[in-house]
non-specific serine/threonine protein kinase
Amino acid sequence: MSQSERLVLATRYRLVSEIGQGANGTVWRGHDELLDRAVAIKELRIPEDLSENERVVFYRRTLREARAPAALRSTSIVEVYDVVIEAGRPWIVMELIEAPSLEQLIERSGPLPPERVCYIGRQLLDALGVAHRAGIVHRDLKPSNVLLDGDRVVLTDFGLAFSSGSASLTKTGHFMGSPAYVAPEVAAGEKATPRSDLWSLGATLYAALEGRPPFERENVMATLSALANESTPAPQNAGGLGSVVTGLLEKNPTRRLTHARAADRLERAMTGPRSSRRAPTPKYRMMVVIGLIGATVASCGIGGTALVVGMMKEGPGPSPTADPKRHAGAPTAAPAGAADSTLLVRARADGCKIFVSVPGSQITVLANETIPAGSARQFDQPKLNAVVYDSAACEVWVNGEHKPEGRAGELKRYTLHR
């Protein structure tokens, strides 16, 4: 057993076994002996030729890597627990997700079907939205940094991330990032922006669909040359995702798809074209009534049904500016089963999205969906982790107790034990 495998960090994090190695360090399976839970521990490798000042910069980058995702709250972003300095180098303690990366899945299975890539893209876009709203740019989105844990898609490794309020720590003359997935403007020396992350998302989705990124060549310089000089190839296996991928891979960042437009195109690819939202001009709707007729239909000699079509005046309906909760109804008595459930969630309005999983060495996803208004979901497992993305749109009962509603758009997390 190596010295690292015998190490206990900060008197509580024991290294158990090595999970994998990358260009900038080693990831270990660990155990938090204080909280008695499995964790992942990233041991960052410090280049041996760094000066003392450069070593200080490296430590600052490490702290930033921990702070970036630690400030974010999303099931699609890996959760960071702690960062410690031990044995002369930094270690980042985070959520353990024992699941294959998108890169491993592509290598093992080849190109993925558009339907699955569309789902992955939507989850990653949500994760980027959370980061970008917090002023954080990832700068290294690629398939190896995307973990696929059942229905859960998790963005990891914010080692190159920076926030709008932090100073740049990239050394002059050093290229940072992965050439096959870096945006053209960043490769040319410009500052990374949220739209640079969107390019990387497009390259990642392209790789998932085609089996390789769009500009990958035999070496770094050839890749960067192709990125600068060649046209973006059209994906051949994209199906309905073609416009999303090509829009994200627009070389001019001002013409690149915005987050909102990318989300709209992904939604259209997942659900098909949306019907027109324009209300019909007449304030009438067709009413169809099928009534059983007891008499015999003379021409056929059998009993039948009569189809009666009429017009019924349509009520004015709710105001488009009214509070949707008012029309969904205030909290009522607990639904049947709430008292016997660990968790019960009922949608009081559209937008009640939940993510529910059973914790453990292997996370089991029970639900990752938007619940139709008026419907409910019930869970009976003794241990659960749950995320409610818009707590104003949901009613929540935990062990039979009704939880207070939150503000519109407020995300709430629940760790449940029974």
